[in-house]
Prior knowledge:
Layout: H1 3-25, H2 42-60, H3 65-73, H4 80-99, H5 103-107, E1 109-111, E2 117-119, H6 120-146
Antiparallel strand pairs: 1-2
Organism: Halobacillus kuroshimensis
Pfam families: DinB_2
Protein name: DinB family protein
Amino acid sequence: xxxxxxxxxxxxxxxxxSLSEIIGQLTxxxxxxxxxxxxxxxxxxxxxxxxxxxxxxxxxxxxSKEKMERFYETVNMKTKxxxxxxxxxxxxxxxxxxxxxxxxxxQEETTSWWDVRYTRYEWLVQIVAHMYHHRGQLQAMxxxxxxxxxxxxxxx
Length: 156
């Protein structure tokens, strides 16, 4: 694997390890908490995060809006265990996707269904940013809305 991709995947491993710790400390009741009406609950946000590596991996390859809609229709996680299983599986799938890209393939631009063009490497950087963004949201929800500071190391 390209050394820059290795570094990006290391950062994904950091965020996934911290998510795993956070999920381990939550109760099933915590998963139902919804700090803002009409927005994700804690469990829904975690399910979304578990989906990101697979969904954004498809987007990296130029998946159509219709393909993404079909993919999201298959996503159904309710328990902490289901979320963790999907998170680890989808991360492994994304890593396998990037494992053997050549330098040329990493620099090849692909277009999302909403017309954004990035190289495959840029899509990987975006995936890292996407995961950290939502982990920050999760941390803020837990700390500021529910006074739950789980004291999980968020960075190395």
